From TrEMBL:
<keyword id="KW-0964">Secreted</keyword>
<dbReference type="GO" id="GO:0009986">
    <property type="term" value="C:cell surface"/>
</dbReference>
<dbReference type="InterPro" id="IPR015590">
    <property type="entry name" value="Aldehyde_DH_dom"/>
</dbReference>
<dbReference type="GO" id="GO:0016620">
    <property type="term" value="F:oxidoreductase activity, acting on the aldehyde or oxo group of donors, NAD or NADP as acceptor"/>
</dbReference>
<feature type="region of interest" description="Disordered">
    <location>
        <begin position="172"/>
        <end position="214"/>
    </location>
</feature>
<dbReference type="GO" id="GO:0005576">
    <property type="term" value="C:extracellular region"/>
</dbReference>
<dbReference type="InterPro" id="IPR001534">
    <property type="entry name" value="Transthyretin-like"/>
</dbReference>
<feature type="domain" description="Aldehyde dehydrogenase">
    <location>
        <begin position="167"/>
        <end position="474"/>
    </location>
</feature>
<dbReference type="InterPro" id="IPR038479">
    <property type="entry name" value="Transthyretin-like_sf"/>
</dbReference>
<comment type="similarity">
    <text>Belongs to the nematode transthyretin-like family.</text>
</comment>
<dbReference type="InterPro" id="IPR016162">
    <property type="entry name" value="Ald_DH_N"/>
</dbReference>
<dbReference type="InterPro" id="IPR016161">
    <property type="entry name" value="Ald_DH/histidinol_DH"/>
</dbReference>
<dbReference type="InterPro" id="IPR016163">
    <property type="entry name" value="Ald_DH_C"/>
</dbReference>
<keyword id="KW-0732">Signal</keyword>
<dbReference type="Pfam" id="PF01060">
    <property type="entry name" value="TTR-52"/>
</dbReference>
<protein>
    <recommendedName>
        <fullName>Aldehyde dehydrogenase domain-containing protein</fullName>
    </recommendedName>
</protein>
<dbReference type="Pfam" id="PF00171">
    <property type="entry name" value="Aldedh"/>
</dbReference>
Length: 484
């Protein structure tokens, strides 16, 4: 027993590390940044913290720490900096390994002098905790009208026609609300027939159609779309916050969207049959994925809510030709009906089957009208089919995810599930248990799995389905008193 005790004391020894130096970010000292010394552990064990300090106002620091280990420690230095850049608020992290020769046995006797390090270039490829920091700030900044860059806020609620921001000629506007609180976000200009007429009858100074048909236009359009995607990426955090504020989808979902970069990549990597634009297109943008307007080009785009209007600033900043992208916010009887009826505008509608029928009907109202160029992307049922030999854990999880994606407000949501009889009861039991764990709450709260329905109409529709299911004895739902 005595021998074992002696051996143990000999094999575990105190080892220390001492580091000092200065950090810069560009030409400025990196003041009040957190610097840590850690002992990196392998496997699931967390790294051991040996010491922590803040840099002074001149970016300088000195830090030492010690630990008892069996073998040689693997020391590293980490620097953390809460960055409040205009476009990329985040917590930045960088790490460097400390050479083994600076490990001190017992009392620290040798310092690791790192000198002066400029982190500006390193921070361009650093690990970022953007989501966590932004989500903590987004609810209080965006909801209270602060934190929105001027280039997004100034014209966000106006129409965008022929490269100009303008109010509705009628002076009408409509209110868009935060579905989580019911509070007003903004008064958005309501486009009507006169503004639609301005778009179709105007003669803006822009490149001719024949010039656009030239061989050089496709590479140019690819560059413009890439610029637009880059600008959206630059302002990803604030756009995601506005999207969540307007639609109620969880902020983590809004922030993770990267379709803009995907579309930009396709523009010069996939070759279609003919590089010739069709005439002006009226894109009826769905309210559940409004930023998909980026996929359209050469089109007056119709939509009705707040964040996509902010996107118009990017069209100008990216250098799109005048008149290429136009946005009319409004409703069916006003701007939508005029676009649907006009002979000079091809139509592309994305939305419900019910409204799709109405738009097609409007397209035939004009005496000279036809629907030769009319495409529709309508809602579907998208059922899941679960067989008895399926992995039930995976099947339940997948069905759950596909049902509740975007608060069940997506045409691809699997709102029906067919299950083979012999596993039906078990599937239902597991699904019920998983659904009970789902957290519905503030979309800016990282603990929330699901936010509110996009507006009161959608919420009432869901409640009607619930009541119908209860009457038919298919479901048992208990709503908390005073809550929807």
């Amino acid at each position: 027993m005595l021998l074992l005790s002696v051996v143990s004391s000999y094999s575990t020894r105190v080892q220390g590390i001492a580091v000092r130096g200065r950090f810069l970010c560009g030409r400025e000292p990196l003041a009040h940044a957190t610097v840590k010394i850690i002992d990196k552990d392998s496997g699931r064990d967390p790294d051991d913290l040996l010491g922590e300090v803040l840099t002074d106002s001149d970016g300088r620091f000195s830090l030492s720490g010690a630990t008892r280990e069996d073998g040689d420690i693997e020391a590293a230095i980490k620097v953390y900096h809460d960055c409040n850049d205009e476009h990329t608020p985040c917590q930045r992290k960088m790490m460097w390994d400390i050479p083994q020769r600076y490990n001190n046995n017992g009392t620290v006797s040798e310092w690791f002098e790192i000198g002066e390090i400029n982190l500006e270039l390193g921070f361009r490829s650093e690990e970022r905790d953007s989501l966590g920091m932004l989500t903590r700030l987004a609810g209080q900044t965006v909801r209270h009208g602060s934190g929105v860059p001027d280039h997004l806020e100034e014209h966000s609620a106006k129409l965008f026609i022929n490269d100009e921001f303008m109010n509705a000629k009628s002076g009408k506007s409509f209110e868009t609300q935060d579905p989580a609180t019911g509070n007003k976000i903004a008064d958005v200009a309501e486009g009507g027939p006169r503004r639609c007429s301005c778009r179709r009858e105007g003669r803006p100074s822009k490149p001719s159609v024949s010039a656009r048909r030239g061989a050089g236009w496709t590479p140019r359009s690819a560059v413009l779309i890439q610029r637009l995607a880059n600008l959206m990426e630059r302002d990803r955090q604030i756009l995601a916050s506005l999207e969540t504020l307007d639609t109620g989808k969880p902020h983590s979902v809004s922030y993770a969207a990267d379709l803009g970069l995907s579309i930009a990549g396709m523009s010069d990597h996939f070759t279609c049959t003919r590089h010739e634009p069709v005439r002006a297109c009226g894109q009826f943008i769905p309210w559940n994925f409004q930023l998909l307007m980026q996929a359209g080009s050469w089109a007056p785009l119709w939509l009705c809510r707040f964040p996509p209007c902010s996107l118009t600033s990017f069209l100008r900043e990216a250098g799109f030709p005048e008149g290429v992208g136009n946005i009319l916010s409004g409703f069916g009887p006003t701007s939508a009906a005029v676009v649907a009826q006009h002979m000079g505008i091809d139509k592309a509608f994305t939305g419900s089957t019910e409204i799709g029928r109405l738009v097609m009907k409007e397209a035939q109202q004009h005496q000279d009208s036809n629907i030769k160029k009319f495409t529709v992307d309508l809602g579907g049922k998208a059922p899941n089919i679960i067989f008895a030999d399926a992995n039930l854990d995976e099947a339940v999880e997948q069905a759950h995810r596909e049902l509740f994606f975007h608060q069940s407000q997506c045409c691809g949501d699997a709102i029906r599930t067919f299950v083979e009889g012999m596993v039906y009861d078990e599937f239902v039991a597991r699904s019920r248990e998983l659904a009970r764990k789902r957290v519905v709450g503030d979309p800016f709260d990282l603990e929330s799995d699901q936010g509110p329905q996009i507006d009161g109409n959608q919420g009432n529709t869901v409640l009607k389905f619930i009541e119908a299911g209860k009457r038919e004895g298919l479901i048992g739902v208990r709503l908390q008193e005073g809550r929807r």
